[in-house]
Amino acid sequence: MLERRPTVVDFLTLLGLSLIWGTSYILIKYGLTVFSAQQIAVLRLGLSALALSPFALTHLRRIRLRQLPPLLLVGLTGTAIPSFLFPIAQTHLSSSLTGMLSSLTPLCTFLVAWLVFRNRPVKEQVIGLVVGLLGAVLLAYVTPGEGTQRSQLAYAGLVLGACFCYGTSANLVAHYFRQLPSLTITVTSFFLVGLPALIYAFTLGGVVPTLAAAGTEGWWALGYVTILAVGSTVLASFVFFRLVQRSGAVFASTVSYLIPVVALLWGLVDNERFALLQLPAIGLVLMGVFLSKRK
């Protein structure tokens, strides 16, 4: 299906989405001061499902049985798996580095479209893939952190895995669900993965004892995770799926051009260290993203 030319509304939506998503990494960082990476993941998924519960009955009725497997896959790749990968990565990476590495999403979207959906690439796209990945390796290597360069590279691989998940989700929505309302996609995919996570979080997940032991700090951390769930997950996913439907998967994924800027600014505000060599590394990543978008 041909993708139409993006409008001014699409570009403004892209900007707003970048602000929402770019803030998620600093929220994860603050949540990790109290909760484990696994607890943040199940809380994020569970609170997201809870926030969407008023819409559940109406939108779940619109789903046909044959649509459930691909929607479950959208939920797993677009929400569930990245919800675990990002907090685990941020136990060893700064929030700004994680946000900057997330700019690989368009490259991963292109690669999934090429390998899975058989979209034939041009030479510039293949070059862009190589350049972008080299930039990501350099970025993970030169960014100041608490661990060694080797450990940073290893945990950067988790961020790359999350980007591949986002790329898979975007392609699934673009190819199979263009005619399905965005809120229906969001509600269904989130409920399929979020309801089990909500039950687990407040039973076997140890969230309640952790919250009780942490006192006031625990409630602040829960507040950050709640904003992460409702704003950077539910609202952002709804806007993203709508943008995919309006303008296509590759244009929507270019939100990753702007997310690193927002994440970097939050990191500087929070006194995270910055090295000048990060600038050419970011440049290589963005150049790779640009080339990968060539038709």
Automatic annotation (TrEMBL):
What cellular component terms from Gene Ontology apply here?
membrane
Its main localization is membrane
Name the domain of life this protein comes from.
Bacteria
Where's the EamA domain? 12-140, 157-292
Give the record's keywords alphabetically.
Membrane, Transmembrane, Transmembrane helix
One Pfam family named in its UniProt record: EamA
- List the subcellular locations: Membrane
Which membrane topology describes this protein? Multi-pass membrane protein
Q: Which residues cross the membrane?
A: 7-28, 40-58, 70-89, 95-117, 126-143, 155-177, 189-212, 218-241, 248-269, 275-292
Residue ranges the record marks as coiled coil? none
Query: What does UniProt give as the signal peptide span?
Result: none
- Which protein family is named in the record? Belongs to the EamA transporter family.
Q: What is this protein called?
A: EamA family transporter
Species per Swiss-Prot/TrEMBL record:
Neolewinella marina
